[in-house]
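ok trying again, last paste got cut off:
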Amino acid sequence: MTTLRILIGCETSGIARRAFAELGHDVWSCDLEAAEDGSNRHIVCDIRDGILTWGWDLLAVMHPPCTRLCRSGRRWMSGPGKWTQPKQLPAGRTWDEMRAEFELGVSVFTTCWTAPIKRIAIENPEMNDLARDRMPADLPVPQMVQPHWFGEPAYKATGWYLRNLPVLEPTAPLMEPERNSDEWRRWNRIHRMPPGPERARLRSRSFPGMMHAAAAQWSAAALAEV
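nice, full thing came through this time. structure:
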């Protein structure tokens, strides 16, 4: 069986790594933090520090810093026009801190997108205009998917920026619950998650159903070209 060398970037949960590994591929993950599952196939590093040049067949970047790049975060970055003083900032934060986080997000995203890897998938929301101005010219419109397309009873619009990979096809679509019902509220649990030290990590966690679909569909597309 032909195997692929796959890097899962910006992931600590191991959910995507395990989904691809179950298909027999040579899969590694990397992040600034250690892997939650203690895997020895996880590298603690900054993804920008050379690992992208190690001869990968496919790169999937799961949770790069995107808070300042997304449309919902635009109000913290600028007022009317572009790069004017915001009308309001998060409590205890400065505009310089917001801009530093924006620059980090741009750096990680663009470094991954321009990596010398044929097949790339980067998970990120739809970007605001300030972020789009800084993106490579060949960046496509993201494919927006929902967890419930893949058997996960949840709402969380997820954007995939894809290079040389097919858009994800639903594998186990669920019937959506009636709006404002108890089940509908459960499906919205990610958006309703209260503030806390674990909120960002839990909100960014991958959905196993989506990752199994991605592993199967993207692997098949890559292997068809080998």
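cool. The first helix runs from residue 15 to 21. The chain has a mean pLDDT of 92.
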